[in-house]
Amino acid sequence: MAMAKPIIATRVGDIPNILNQSGYFVDPGSPGQIAEKISYLFTHREEAAQKGQLARDRCIAHYSTAKMGEILNQVLRSVVV
Fold it and tell me: Which pTM value belongs to this model?
């Protein structure tokens, strides 16, 4: 996400929530779907670049060290105060 590259991920755990609409999803254990998505990325480069940038923007907004610091600060303030 941080490198602004298009992401292909499986629909397991929290991955769909983390990526939201910034990635391409395949079913677990489906190498054929992965191959299809890779081919799709090479034939839709502009869309793939946009999704990659969307992933980076989401990473910075939700998972950067600055954001994690804000969240930790809020948690500590709620416990200490």
Answer: 0.80
Tokens of 76: 């500590």
Taking each helix axis from N to C terminus, what angle separates 65-80 and 45-63, rounded to the nearest 10 degrees?
Answer: 30
Please state, in angstroms and rounded to a whole number, the distance separating the CA atoms of residues 69 and 66: 5
Cα gap 47→41, rounded to integer Å: 8
Residues in the chain: 81
What is the per-residue DSSP string for 42-62?
HH-HHHHHHHHHHHHHHHHHH
CA-CA-CA-CA dihedral for 20, 23, 29, 34, to nearest 10: 160
The predicted-structure confidence for 50-74, as pLDDT tens digits, reads as follows 999 999 999 999 989 999 999 999 9
Q: What integer best gives the mean pLDDT of the chain?
A: 95
